[in-house]
Amino acid sequence: MTKDYSQDFARVEGKVWLNCAHQGPLPNAAVDEAHEAIAWKTALHLLRDELFFDVPLRLRHALGKLIGTPPEDIILGNSASYGLHLLANGIRWKAGDEVLVVAGDFPADLFPWLGLEKRGINVRFVEPRQEVLQAEELESHLTKSTKLLCVTYVHSFNGHAVDVQKLGELCRAKGVTFVINCSQALGARAFDVSRIAVDAITNVGFKWLCGPYGTGFCWIRPELRESLDYNQAYWLAMLTPEDLAKELPRVTLRSDLGARRYDVFGTANFFNFKPWAAAVEYLLEQGIDRIETHNNSLVSRLIGGLDPKRYDLLSPREGAARSTLVFVSHKDSKRNSEIYESLRKSGVYIASRAGKLRFSPHLYNTHDDIDHALSILQAI
Ligand SMILES: Cc1ncc(COP(=O)(O)O)c(C=O)c1O
Predict the structure, then answer these.
(1) Which one is the CATH code of 33-284: 3.40.50.880, 3.40.640.10, 3.40.50.2000, 3.40.50.1000?
(2) How high is the mean pLDDT of the chain?
(3) To test the ligand 1 pocket, which listed residue (75, 150, 204) has its Cβ within 8 A of the most ligand atoms?
(4) What pTM value is reported for the model?
(5) 3 state SS of 357
(6) How far is residue 66 from each of residues 183, 289, 353, measured CA to CA in Å?
(7) Distance 182 CA to ligand 1 centre (A)
(8) Residue 207 Cα, ligand 1 centroid: separation in angstroms?
(9) Confidence of residue 301 (pLDDT cuts 50, 70, 90)
(10) Reported confidence tier of residue 1, pLDDT bands at 50, 70, 90
(11) Which residues contact 52 (CB under 8 A, 6 or more apart)?
(12) Which of 248, 298, 310, 345 is most deeply buried (CB count within 10 A of its CB)?
């Protein structure tokens, strides 16, 4: 067993949270920062002007480190949907262009593109042959008009991870913009945008990155980002502290802001971004590789402990497609909702998705948590 990370999180006696794919808990280090943010807003002399610049800057640094990119290339958002909307509304489409999405994918990946149809852009739903899209089948779906492919890295409803490397290479070879929603992956597995042929990623902050709800970010390859045609000019981004000190601030659009130009408004949102920065810094300190190893051992223990006479594992047992989202069904799938309820009544919180049981442990979980859940499954 690896380090006991559970001591870095609040432990609630008798409660086991195996639902990080829904929400991840704040680490203690982030809780302290949230308290400090409340103190700033309670005793306002503490809320120094510099904090409006420092809060986003710190978060940008942590997120840049997480995905292997300079902090200046991080766009701060409030959700995964934020980045997808930037792309959908900002790419210079031509009538007849085609966007490929995957049928059955998480809805946040589908809706942002649909509004483009009224501009003559064709949004095509690809039916994957297996649970998630394989690079081998993608080629047959690409046409001369295909401009963009949007996929989820780890599928929220079946736990399979796509091969982002292979999909990216094919997209790159065919001149297709490749967009990945990493919301169910970042924080649980290492990911470096410089090693994958990807053009944009988007991510929530409140799952595997253990931040508050209403957080997210995106990264858009600089050439693509600079080619967007999207009208956003937030006054706090456009003006420097020196500008603000003047009697009449300069009101001319700046074109040198880079990614920062597209940050969500209220960028210094200290209630959310201060604890989230601390949470990401905490994960980085632990080492994402080590967290991945720890999580793998939790997943292996869960999978290995399932009674095969009574339960079917529906997500991958091993290999690169396996993730931290483990889908299980009782042999009599009609019993799944009753099992979900029994687990909940016993203080074990998982998710019920599409009639299946979804377990999603993260670093704060221990082998004891897994054994406790297994003992309940066994007793049912
Ligand atoms: C893959 C995926 N993307 C996005 C989200 C959330 O999207 P948003 O942050 O836009 O609400 C979820 C879950 O809530 C998810 O599972």
Answers:
(1) 3.40.640.10
(2) 97
(3) 204
(4) 0.97
(5) strand
(6) 13, 11, 29
(7) 9
(8) 9
(9) very high
(10) low
(11) 236, 268
(12) 298
